[in-house]
């Protein structure tokens, strides 16, 4: 980029900070398999993807790593769940810096929240998994708990489980609540493997966003579940993505939303100029291929350098 005196402006090419990204590792010590729709899944190889990611991150030295959830798979034999999560967390910890984890549906198939959250070092009140942090004064990261209202992860008789089951019964008439059969268009998100952001969390989100506005911070919202139908399959969306988006749209500090869960990945810019990037899954990388990335953060954009199946993406702020 040139400047008025003809010298190259090196400053604008220097990121403020960087962070590594990976999602849906879904490790299990079991043979390769397929998704319900027949997409191959490589449960053991995904560990190698993570190991190669850590090696590359240690070379490139981003400031921190973000894991977008589903650290192990639901098919992991349940007597191995605890050790498998510990093993994967240790692999992440081979990175020379902080690692921030999110929960996903597959984490919750394996372990209840009270066991899972300490292992992932998620210290939120009442077993919730939403939190925020500020890597530099100019930026705020907001991590949403997409399984706050969910039929998985809470005790069977917990009010949140009962609320989620009631909601699913109203919205999805199939006996298999993971089946979208007969559901039309956006209704196809009303599946048991998804969830919602509850009222208290929405209030917390509003408070964080108004605080970020006061501090003149730019906000990156992260959630295992995607928030924008144009970046994701209908079947992968947060149940109340529309309620969350209504809040995000009212705060111009929100620049980018990042997610996992929809394994093929996606990117969109919504009606209010917020970028939505859903990352490609590590689990679905055929042997020898990868899906992870490094995001350089600037004043006016996020720049994702993806490896192999993770597509590189420029996210220039539009608002
Ligand atoms: N189109 C679909 C997708 C999924 N299901 C149900 O969800 C379960 C999990 O799906 P995976 O792709 O992660 O294996 C699956 O066992 C089905 O019960 C579905 O019915 N229709
Ligand atoms: O979480 P999974 O692996 O069961 O898959 C979720 C789907 O990709 C959502 O469409």
Automatic annotation (TrEMBL):
Calcineurin-like phosphoesterase domain location: 19-264
Gene Ontology MF: a single term: CDP-glycerol diphosphatase activity
Annotated protein name in UniProt: Manganese-dependent ADP-ribose/CDP-alcohol diphosphatase
Cofactor: Mg(2+)
Family the UniProt entry places it in: Belongs to the ADPRibase-Mn family.
Gene: LOC113741883
Catalytic activity: CDP-glycerol + H2O = sn-glycerol 3-phosphate + CMP + 2 H(+); ADP-D-ribose + H2O = D-ribose 5-phosphate + AMP + 2 H(+); CDP-choline + H2O = phosphocholine + CMP + 2 H(+)
Top-level EC class: hydrolase
SUPFAM superfamilies in alphabetical order: Metallo-dependent phosphatases
EC number: 3.6.1.13, 3.6.1.16, 3.6.1.53
Keywords: Hydrolase, Metal-binding, Zinc
Keyword Cell membrane applies: no
Quaternary structure and interacting proteins, as annotated: Monomer.
Species the sequence originates in: Coffea arabica (Arabian coffee)
InterPro entries the record matches: Calcineurin-like_PHP (IPR004843), Metallo-depent_PP-like (IPR029052), MPP_ADPRM (IPR041869)
Pfam families registered for this protein in UniProt: Metallophos
């Amino acid at each position: 980029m040139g400047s008025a005196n003809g010298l190259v402006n090196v400053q604008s090419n220097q990121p403020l900070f960087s962070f590594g990204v990976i999602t849906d590792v879904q490790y299990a010590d079991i043979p390769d398999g397929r998704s319900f729709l027949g997409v191959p899944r490589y449960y053991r190889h995904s560990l190698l993807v993570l190991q190669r990611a850590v090696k590359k991150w240690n070379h490139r030295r981003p400031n921190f790593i973000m894991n977008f959830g589903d650290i192990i798979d639901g098919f992991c034999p349940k007597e191995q769940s605890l050790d498998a999560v510990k093993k994967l967390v240790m692999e992440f910890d081979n990175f020379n810096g902080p690692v921030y984890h999110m929960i996903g549906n597959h984490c919750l198939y394996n372990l209840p929240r009270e066991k899972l959250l300490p292992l992932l070092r998620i210290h939120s009140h009442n077993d919730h998994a939403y939190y925020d942090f500020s890597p530099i004064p100019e930026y705020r990261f907001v991590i949403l708990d997409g399984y706050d209202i969910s039929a998985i992860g809470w005790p069977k008789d917990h009010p949140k489980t009962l609320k989620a089951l009631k909601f699913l019964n109203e919205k999805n008439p199939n006996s298999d609540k993971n089946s979208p059969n007969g559901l039309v268009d956006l209704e196809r998100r009303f599946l048991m493997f998804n969830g919602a952001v509850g009222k208290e969390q929405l209030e917390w989100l509003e408070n964080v966003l108004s605080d970020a506005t006061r501090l003149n911070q730019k906000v990156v919202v992260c959630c295992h579940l995607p928030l924008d139908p144009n970046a994701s399959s209908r079947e992968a969306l947060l149940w109340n993505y529309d309620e969350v988006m209504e809040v995000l749209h009212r705060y111009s500090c929100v620049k980018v939303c990042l997610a996992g869960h929809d394994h093929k990945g996606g990117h969109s810019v919504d009606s209010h100029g917020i970028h939505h990037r859903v990352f490609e899954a590590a689990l679905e990388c055929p042997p020898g291929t990868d899906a992870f990335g490094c995001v350089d953060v600037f004043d006016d954009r996020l720049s994702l350098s993806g490896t192999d199946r993770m597509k590189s993406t420029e996210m220039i702020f539009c608002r």
